[in-house]
Amino acid sequence: MIPSAVAIAAVLAIAPPAVAQQTAVAATSASRAPATRAPTTGAQDTLAGLEAYIRESMPDWDVPGLAVAVVYNDEVVFAEGFGVKEMGRDDPVDAHTLFQIGSVTKSFAAGAIGALVDDGLVGWDDPAVKHLPWFRVRDPWVTREMTVRDLLAHRSGMPGDAYPVLAVMDARQAAERLRLPENQAPLRQGFRYSNQAYGVAGLIVEAVTGVSWGHWVRERLLLPLEMHESGTSPYDVWDGPYVASTFLGVAPAGRVSIDDAPGRNVAMPHGVDRNGERRVLPWQSYDNMQAAGSVVSNVADLANWMRMHVRRGFFNGEFVLEDSTVSEMHAPQVATEHTFVFADDHAGAYGMGWTRATFHDRLHLSHGGGIFGFPAYVAMLPEVGAGVAVLANGSMWTPYYPHQEIAAWVFARLLGVEPRDWHGEIMARTGIIHAQVEEALAAQDAARIPGTRPSLSLEDYPGTYEDAYGSGPVTVALSDGRLVLHFDGPGAFRGDMEHWHHDVFRLYFDGGDGQAYGSSFVTFTIGSDGGIDRMDLGFMGEYRKAG
Predict the structure, then answer these.
(1) Labelling 32: which of 80, 238, 381, 450 has CA 20 to 30 A away?
(2) Which tens digits make up the pLDDT trace of 167-203?
(3) pTM: predicted TM-score of the whole model, two decimal places
(4) Rounded to the nearest 5 degrees, what angle is found at the Cα of 356, between the Cα atoms of 352 and 359?
(5) Is 144 helix (H, G, I), strand (E, B) or coil?
(6) Are 487 and 166 in contact (CB under 8 A)?
(7) Which DSSP state fits 458?
């Protein structure tokens, strides 16, 4: 069996985008407001070595740029950028440089629903079909019973991604495909991370408010929190031709640079090419599952997001979210192992938009994000009033390790606990991961059978392929003696194939990060009539040749 790049990633545990009835932000109440903390004294002195620590560690992390913000006692005590926005350029990253934050968006998605709970328009335990009567998964009972809480807590059993999203389609089209795949897991029988579930939660926001998810998030979260530089889509920053239109897609304009966003303080994401060398990637749209991973931000703005959370919804004199709502988002909803490598133990839980662990006996809330080339991480110790946001612009096999190392260094200093060699521990773990990757890739190469040929001439493979779920068409063409595959729509997935063995071809992705998402395998099956019957794209689905 040939291990796919996605399977390699899974084995290595590389973790995990006009209001019809607009109401005012929850009113301020002095009796409900958290007590004002005493001014921070000495926090800057305590963190005095952070800048040097980051600069000394950056060469080992192999990222062009990085930005970090720290909040403590309702103050921003550190906010700086390091490195450059784009390799080969001198433009430095600063605290206001915009990055895509990937699945850190899920905390905003939960907050967007929380605002509706505050307004009395949605209940955490409302069935999803109460607000989306058209919504279906394959099992009718699960369809009826699945709640908003289930969607946000990753306990709905819905798939992580339904790979029709490789084609250009809108959010409702992507959600409607869920009634067809047979990979629905049992409801509330454990943690199953699902971008699709968050995409559906975003559609609930739109159905209830009558406006787009992005508009609601801006009005109810970003503006009250003075996150004026943040957005809810890469299209808030870039003209359409410069954005990869879909997951694993490509930018219609081709190569993209910071020059294509004049006047904007943006970082470019970086992956690797087929030779393992760094290459610049375009920003990637996740708008067909927007609430799962589409927010754009910087560490200066994320500092305000953390300040609100550690003060249970309170920010600059008023409640942006009710304290009970924030507490519910932070509360454990389903048991799962966390991904924070410096936690006290392996036990953890997922709330709604946040992962729970403990660090030196304090509650540790966090979420990572992994849009290609943009590893992101936000972590908080709410009992201590501390938070750390780390954004970077280079993909890695271990996307959150440097981020978690920085968070651990900061939290340990603020807590006054015994220091550890955070960097040494992370690099040791990274070395193990890299060795596992090399072993998996070597096994993949060893599984190749030499001296074989395709069953048919390459001229017989091109054509249009469709799957049972209507997510096609997928086109295979022959170009310069090589098979080329692409999904429908500008900027959708495409890649070229080289023969591997028998009727198996290796598909190299034009999009993706070039690492966990750099290539996979395609298997063609010959029918009884001697022609192509179907094409198995692995994690992307199975397709039959049309005509």
Answers:
(1) 381
(2) 666 777 777 766 666 678 899 999 999 999 999 999 9
(3) 0.90
(4) 155
(5) helix
(6) yes
(7) G
